[in-house]
# Entry
Amino acid sequence: MFRLNPSISGLSIFLALALGLWEYYFFYFGGNREAVLGWFTPDRLGFNLAWLAVIYISFQLLSIPFALRASREKFIGVIDGMASVVPLGVTLIVIFGRPELLGTPQRWEAAFLLLLIAAVDLFGGYTFNLALSRRMMDVSGATSS
# Structure
């Protein structure tokens, strides 16, 4: 029987790529369609980005211990780490390569917030993985006397 078993790492990869795609849409096309969509308009940009940041970074960082145990293959972990580069790259390209897309102070703030989210995801995730992969204490062999 076929059973759908989504992995936590797969969902993490999907969220990173979805954030990168959303950033691309927001920076390159969002200026023309923000008012039509109703989301991320200048008067609600900060509030909506705060929710986006909390949900994204919470899942990405809280899923690391579960993904570490569940993934037996190192390949999916590497792909998961590389997917976190996508949102960071999109934001860096916009800030340093296409600053004309950031015409308002609100969009500059959004760009720096998205840059920080992506940096915390990438470097925080690497730090958490490094810390969790080391054995801090060997409790399995300890005996009490």
